[in-house]
Request: fold
Amino acid sequence: MPVSLSFMGLSLILVASILLRHHTQKNLIDFQQKSIWLICLLLVGIFIFLLSFFSLTQVLWCLIVTGSIFFIWDKIPPKHNIQSLYIQSLSKTIGEVLQKLLPWLLLLALSHSFLASFYYISFNSMAPTLKEGDIVVVLPKNSIYFSNKGQKESIQKGQVIVFRDIKQKINLIKRVIGIPGDTITYGDKTLLINGQKIKKKFINKILNTDLKKLSKIEAPHELSQFEQNIELNTFNIFEDENLLNNELLIKDKNCIPVETFIQCSIPNDQYFVLGDNRDHSLDSRHHGLINKKDIYGRAVFILMNISQFNRFFEKIR
Reply:
């Protein structure tokens, strides 16, 4: 996804820049009146390109700072030569567009940082809890602090969180299994937290054709659904009996292999996460522990699903 986003962004920037230059050479006088849409196209390209490397909050604040710089630049008296006139005219138009957008960008940035934002589910690694096409409401990390006063840890085991994968440069959504001070052991479809085996209650079996992109195995086969409880959070998980043990490719100094298991001792500001679709999820078993600074917030409920109209305002367990 980052590659496609960056390519799309660069393409828009290139097209907008060429058209802007061509339009300016033809008619510098009418530049500001006739090139607003090209400026908007350029800004969209920059926005998409930055989004492939940074979080939405970082991109929004970057645009706000850029808009402020252009506002100041616009106050500098122009020099009287063709090249300077082009640059001044371009910066003036960009500045005017950003100034008009500035209040909305500021409102969106503040809302995204302190109130709530949305996350689109594009894979089924969190099935059956979250399905492809779900749009979930996410409370920022600041909201988590305020909602857990008196707790030693603001992020609790069993919660579903959105975080930034710094290696893939994308946002992911998983369930917190281990918090600082915990020892997590996982292998052979068995989960232990601080030496205690987490029980699971069998519910039923479903065909993997019930959900799109659910399994790595193309041929239809059954998946087992279980109910699991971690502290005060009860939720369902999927396990694939066709996969005896998910590949454990973890590379983390806090985790060591123990026969067919991995064991992680979680230090301060680190978290162990898993997908509810246990055998078809890339999580802490593969990428290692999640740093607290990379966590954006907690997913609280499903706003809607773009293809299943019965999934409205469902609380995430």
Remarks:
- The two ends are 28 Å apart (CA to CA).
- The helical segments are 2-26, 31-34, 36-51, 56-73, 82-114, 141-147, 284-287.
